[in-house]
Amino acid sequence: MKKIKQIALKELGFYLNSPIGYIVIGGFVILLNFLFWNDFFLVGVSSVRVLLDLMPWLMLFLIGAFTMRMFAEEKKLNTIELWLTLPVAEEEVVAGKFLGGLLMILITLLLTLTVPLTVAFLGPLSLTEVLSGYLGLVLFGAFLVALGGLISSLTKNQILSLLMSIAAFVGLGMLGTETFIRYLPESIGEVMVYLSPLYHLETFLRGLVSFRSLVYFLSFTFLFLQITFVLLKEGE
């Protein structure tokens, strides 16, 4: 556990000790606030539903930017081999990097809490909607960080990793949309909808905590981490 913590802090330190992390987080928070408040004053309703609807799509790009170097940069500089020669297990490297990326997402989400706090000051706000919505976003974030890390482990090119991650994220998000499933048989369409992370996230954004969706996020996050571990193991 100590080694995992050290790797996580090293990963977190990379972003916090360079302008890249601040630029990405700052851009995310500024754009989110601009889009939300522009709509908020037009609609005039004391709700953060628009905020919760916007965040998943912006997180696709945010997490793609955070995870693009997770393993790709290490492979390019051949430092991943150094990790694997140290008395550190592959699963510890994967878990540590995952936790470091997840911590960055948690920091970013914390910075967005200024929005619901301001809305609560302006009028009545559903606390249940905010709490379940943010729980869903944390699970969604963990899912994407694990998948982004997996994709990053497939290449040495950070830009390619970013493009592949965003394509995968958007593709999974589109699985549950009417545009995609309308041309599929009903049985296959139902499977595609279930596989979409946005479908499961929607339950949390409505103010509900679904055990089924909780299992979905945790299971796929663990699966992505396990595949990454296997790829690193085979690459020794």
Describe the structure.
- The structure is a single chain.
- The chain is mostly helical and 236 residues long.
- The chain is built from 13 helices and no strands.
- It has helices at 2-16, 19-43, 49-67, 72-76, 79-85, 90-112, 114-122, 127-152, 158-174, 178-181, 186-195, 197-205, 211-234.
- Helix 3 (49-67) runs parallel beside helix 8, helix 6 runs antiparallel to helix 8 and helix 6 (90-112) crosses helix 13.
- The radius of gyration is 19 Å and the shape is globular.
Number of helices: 13
Distance from first to last alpha carbon = 22 Å
Structural class: mainly alpha
* Total E-strand runs: 0
The average pLDDT score comes to 85
> Largest sheet, if any?
none
* H/E element sequence: HHHHHHHHHHHHH
Q: State the share of residues found in helices, binned by percent.
A: over 70%
Q: Globular, elongated, flat, extended or rod-shaped: what is the shape?
A: globular
Beta content: under 5%
Radius of gyration: 19 Å
Low-pLDDT runs of 5+ residues are: none
Brief summary:
The protein contains 13 helices and no strands. It is an all-alpha fold and 236 residues long.
Features:
single chain, mainly alpha
Protein topology:
Blueprint: H1 2-16, H2 19-43, H3 49-67, H4 72-76, H5 79-85, H6 90-112, H7 114-122, H8 127-152, H9 158-174, H10 178-181, H11 186-195, H12 197-205, H13 211-234
Helix pairs in contact: 1-6, 2-3, 3-8, 3-9, 6-8, 6-13, 8-9, 8-12, 8-13, 12-13
